[in-house]
Amino acid sequence: MNYNKKAEEIFETLTKRKKYIGELSSNISQGESGVLLYLLNANSNVSQSELSENLGVTMPRIVAVINTLQKKELIEKNVDSTDKRKSIISITNKGKDNIIKKKKDAIKFIENVIKELDEQEIEQYIAISKKIEQISNKIEV
User: Fold this and answer.
1) Residue 141's pLDDT band (boundaries 50, 70, 90)?
2) Of residues 14 and 130, more confidently modeled
């Protein structure tokens, strides 16, 4: 099997979709969504370095995303009381509302897509996606 050719086919199917979940009715970019989802799920304040590490994004990119989210009033950035060199990031109520709505819209979009599949295809897709996630999390780049 030519794995490179198959990888190209998969890449094409992912990039040629007419609609992308990330573009659904929102003024929040994909990178911003990742940060907001992390903050929502963390259920606590986190440092910029924690965001960078856990999201696999460089510090300069995290700083840029944080600045944008702060301007949109979706997060708050404060100086750590125990270490003045650290910034602590927390999600605002407006940020929670925005990311929860975006997540609901994305789930509705996916629901409409998978309605065209039978139950076995859906279960296969989920199983394969989970396996790909596990494998990709092991790969060192």
Assistant:
1) low
2) 130
Listed in sequence order, the DSSP H helices in the chain are: 3-15, 30-42, 48-55, 59-71, 93-114, 119-138
Task: Evaluate the CA torsion angle 118, 136, 89, 58 in order and state its sign.
Answer: negative
Choose among 58, 62, 3: nearest CA to 34.
62
Segments forming the whole domain that contains residue 108: 23-112
- Which residue reads 């897709």 in tokens? 125
Work out how many domains the chain is built from and give that number.
1
pLDDT, tens only, 14-46:
767 666 555 555 688 888 999 999 999 987 789
